Amino acid sequence: MSEEQVAEHEAGAEPAPAAFKPASRTAKSNERKSSVPRARRMKLSLTKIDPWSVTKVSFLLSIAGALIQVIAVALIWLLLNSIGLFDNITQIVSTTGLDSGGLDIASFFGIGKVLSAVTIFSIFEIVLVTVLATIGAFLYNVVSSLVGGVHLTLGDD
Rounded distance, CA 123 to CA 83, Å? Predict the structure, then answer.
């Protein structure tokens, strides 16, 4: 081994291939810069997507989205209730004379009813997103077999 390889080995680094090392230690700094490898680029094609993996990932992501949605609606409801929006709307409706049956907006839009409705909507949303993503994966596979898929150029920076 040369001195450079021994020093790199002791430092824990992997030795670079000989083609990437300068020819001698006395080489000028601009010669060393020219021997440094450029970033590699690879051209790849995405020709097939596994529908089962798309189903699993979309199901888990839609569950996460549904949880975020339920928590956000609960927080918004608590905020609107704390500023007294529902009581103010009930008061405005009663002062205008439209309150013929004792309408109470706060009881109509109670936290239980709102969260139940959002949870039911979220369950339908989970099923819909999962089914649509899986159908999208099947359609992508059909189309990519006709046109060759999506072509990507990946760089190693």
Answer: 30
